[in-house]
Amino acid sequence: MSQPPFQQPPQQWWPPTGPPTPGPPPRTAQPVHRRAWFLALAGVVVLLVGIGIGAAGGSTPTRPVADDTSVAGPARATTTVTAPAPAPATVTVTATPPAAATAKAPQPAPAPAPAPAPAPAPAPAPAPAPGQTAGQRNALGSANDYLDYSAFSRSGLIEQLEYEGYSTADATWAVDNTGADWNEQAAKSAQAYLDFTSFSRAGLVEQLEYEGFTREQAEYGVSQTGL
Fold this sequence. Notes:
By secondary structure, the chain is an all-alpha fold.
């Protein structure tokens, strides 16, 4: 293997320089013990400076606090957040109804309404006396028929029977044996007159007396009508 031909490096031209100027003499290295003393002194200075800075930072200057009453700062907006109240617990109480009575006490029966007083039964006709005549029996039947139809006084009924042709004796006997209540007959007669027309008390009493009722019977009959 052949080597390349040798080439001569190009020559460099420098500007001409004068003779070297003399410089400062070279510094000699300091001894080791002087360097250690310097380092220790520098550490003490740094330590003192650090202590001074720490003391200065620890002391806080006291600023006068202005009275709250003299200067009132702007009021802070207060936001009230109302937390929803917890729902009350629902307690279900089931009341146990008392056991129903197996048998109800019997209710007292209502008192029956008082029955109206029965109307007095008409007095039975007296049994015919022994030896009663046919005229008397007929007069008695006619007298009862008249009393069932209308009200009569004793004397008025006798006159009516006489008008029918009965003898005074038979008519009187028949009227006395009817068992009629002449006070009640006076009351019925007074009411019949008032149903037909108007009367004063004195006028009605007088009318009943005209019909054959006694004064006492007429007064009683008119009083029953309310006059």
